[in-house]
Hints:
- By secondary structure, the chain is of the alpha/beta class.
- The chain folds into 2 domains: 25-70 and 331-462, Beta Barrel (Lyase, Ornithine Decarboxylase, Chain A, domain 1); 102-324, Alanine racemase (TIM Barrel, Alpha-Beta Barrel), CATH 3.20.20.10.
- The protein has helices spanning 25-29, 55-62, 71-84, 104-112, 122-130, 147-156, 166-179, 218-227, 249-269, 295-313, 326-329, 367-371, 461-465, 469-472; strands at 41-42, 48-50, 53-54, 66-70, 92-97, 116-119, 138-140, 160-163, 183-190, 212-213, 232-238, 275-277, 319-322, 333-348, 351-358, 377-379, 388-394, 403-411, 419-422, 444-448, 451-456.
- The strands form 3 sheets. Strands 4, 14, 15, 16, 17, 18, 19, 20 and 21 form a 9-stranded mixed β-sheet that branches. An 8-stranded parallel β-barrel has the order 5-6-7-8-9-11-12-13, surrounded by 8 helices. A 3-stranded antiparallel β-sheet has the order 1-2-3.
- Strand 17 (388-394) and strand 18 form a beta hairpin.
- Helix 3 runs parallel beside helix 10.
- The N and C termini lie far apart (48 Å).
Amino acid sequence: MRAHPAGPLHGDGLIQATVPAAPDPAAMTRLDAQIWPATARRDASGAVVLGGCSIRDMVAKHGSPVMLLDEADFRARAAAFQDAYTDPDVPGLVSFAGKAFMSGTTTRWLADEGLGLDVCTGGELALATRAGFPAERISLHGNNKSDAELRAGIAAGIGRFVLDSLEEVDRLADLAGEAGAVAPVLVRVTTGVEAHTHEFIATAHEDQKFGLSLTSGAGREAVMAVAARPELRLVGIHSHIGSQIFDTAGFEVAAHRVVGFIADLAEHDGVSVEELNLGGGMGIAYLPTDDPVAPVGMAEALRAIVSGECVRRGIPVPRIAVEPGRAIVGPSMITVYEVGTVKPVEYRTGTWRTYVSVDGGMSDNIRTALYDAEYTVVLASRVSSAPAMLSRVVGKHCESGDIVVRDAWLPADLARGDLLAIASTGAYCRAMASNYNLVPRPPVVAVRGGRDRVVLRRESEDDLFALDPALADPAGPPAGA
């Protein structure tokens, strides 16, 4: 970890990452199809075009920074998951993980494509219901759901409550009983399987806040508690092993343990399970070296794994549910920044890095500071034949750890006013955005067929001050009042 008790260090931090060799100028202009949205290309002038819209035009119209969402790419990825898990022999269910990115517009796109929706707070549930998303296709997660959130889910008639603790079983049952309802539930279990991913986003090991342990028996205790309450209906078992997963090995071990658990419930307790939810975590390409599994490949592998385990244990194959979020929206969105200060720094004798400051930063993408996330960046407003310079793309915030791309090669003639595009920023960047240093959050603009429409508008200073009683009234109270 680079983390330091006093906060992120500037410069190289505690670990010096290996920097790839400098590319030739032509390589710096290419848009890798595995990383960039499907419609991304360069026009005759060299500017990046997305959804038929030049990013130069989009910045002129919507300002900078701006997050551009390729609608066709988003819908195609959602449809690809839906198709991959449609199988006559092993039914599937695909729910979008709303925490990756939610808006009224994209929620309606997901409804159009037939997906379900996984929400984990009252706010996300409220957005879904206001957008008109079918309630029966909504699942409510969360390790600390409030009574108000549970009541909202019951009132909306959502399709699944994912129970995360023993005490939640009785709370939900009591609230459902008050409403005269029967709540459909999944019990989330931990299997002891940890995906090979960043330690902060691996969630299936035992020492963490999510789920109920199979090893300790808490998972079985929760299932039996659900079965004992007529106000609840057990739909299935939920298991999530982490995020940004590039192979099926972790799923294979987790499925072996969960199917064994389901078989034991049927054999010893007479409890049947109709759905096995393996969570999300399917990875995407941020760099050319990343090699994610395509939805159809992952679906085929999961079906084979679960079916094989069920046959071995002599139980019916349950419906297989998954919850991709990043894998749908992540590659569909890019962030465009305008270059400000360009500052060469000799950080080691004879070794230089150029700090390229942009007009956003950790307020719209905290993932680099939080997870050491890596991104691909290109000069997007033009092409250049200048040689490559080792660069660090940094934000405008008053933090040395405000880094967007830690190490990148950019043209040596990069100058103030140029536009940079960062790929694969659809997942968690806008969702985790803040107003740190009182910087307004950027807009999200959908592009398709040469047309653009605002999905989330840019925040204004009035938005920033709307919650401050002393500032909400432009006149303000008198000094000292």
